[in-house]
Every structure is written in structure tokens, then in C-alpha cells.
Specification:
Elements lengths: L2 H10 L13 E7 L4 E5 L12 H11 L5 E8 L9 H10 L4 E5 L5 E5 H4 L11
Parallel strand pairs: 3-4
Antiparallel strand pairs: 1-2, 1-3, 4-5
Bound molecules: tetrahydrodeoxyuridine (THU).
Length: 130
């Protein structure tokens, strides 16, 4: 899948977001090493705390289907600003793909590409637990 196609998949997920409280839809498309793509959207809850971000929805869908090796993730927002993953999502992404490429895509279809090490330096990971 091309970068443009991965970004389009993330942007399509904006329509699936369940965001009655924030009105801030986010879409994600996570590409596995074998090319399989899992998508996700944010899913909010009246109790706020149980809400789930788009990135984690995509990761949990993938892991629950037996996929753990990830190459790239595209994250789409319906704003002109780019939406970088929150701290909790950075931690979850780091668990499975510490070198992940992260492509942010805005409402205009513009992209900004970063790496997870850039977004999440001095990270905590399972290696320290022995
Ligand atoms: N959100 C995501 O889904 N991903 C991010 O990277 C940042 C924030 C969601 C959580 C909540 O549903 C809404 O955006 C506003 O914070």
C-alpha cells in the first residue's frame, strides 16, 4: 500500500469515530510488516475514562487478530493542525513497534512523517523488567 493509500484509509475512519463529547474525530491505519492494514477510530464514553483513541483501537484490533509486527501508522484528524498521538498511545505503540514510522495527515491531506523514537524518547519498555 502506498503512503497515500494508507493516509486515505486513516481519513476514511474519521466517519466511523464515535465522538459525541469531544466532537474531535481521529482515524488511524496501522500497516503490519506483511502489508496487512488494521484501521481504527476513537470511541468515546459518557464516563470519559473508558474512551479509546483511534491508534489504540487499531493496535488492539491487530494484536487480537494475531498481528504484532508493525511498520507504519497513519493518523488522521479533521483539523488543519496535525494530531500527534497522546502519551498513552505512544506507550502502547512502543510496546509492539519501538521504531514505528508515524505519518500524521490533516484535513487538507498534508502529511508530516515522524518516528516513534522522535515522539517518545527515553521510553519505558519491557526490556528493563528482565
Ligand atoms: N484522540 C485520539 O483518538 N488520538 C489521538 O492521538 C489524540 C486524541 C481522541 C481522544 C478523544 O476521543 C478525542 O481525540 C479528543 O481528545
Amino acid at each position: 500500500m502506498t503512503t497515500q493509500e494508507l493516509c486515505a484509509a486513516a481519513r476514511r475512519m474519521l466517519a466511523m469515530a464515535y465522538v459525541p463529547y469531544s466532537h474531535f474525530p481521529v482515524g488511524a491505519a496501522l500497516e503490519c510488516m506483511d502489508g496487512t492494514v488494521f484501521t481504527g477510530c476513537n470511541i468515546e464514553n459518557a464516563a470519559y475514562g473508558p474512551s479509546n483513541c483511534a491508534e489504540r483501537t487499531a493496535v488492539f484490533k491487530a494484536v487480537s487478530e494475531g498481528y504484532r509486527d508493525f511498520r507504519r501508522i497513519a493518523i488522521a484528524a479533521d483539523t488543519e493542525d496535525f494530531c500527534a498521538p497522546c502519551g498513552v498511545c505512544r506507550q502502547v505503540l512502543h510496546e509492539f513497534a519501538p521504531k514505528l514510522e508515524v505519518i500524521l495527515v490533516n484535513r487538507l491531506g498534508e502529511t508530516r512523517t515522524l518516528t516513534l523514537p522522535e515522539l517518545f524518547p527515553h521510553s519505558f519498555g519491557g526490556d528493563i523488567l528482565g
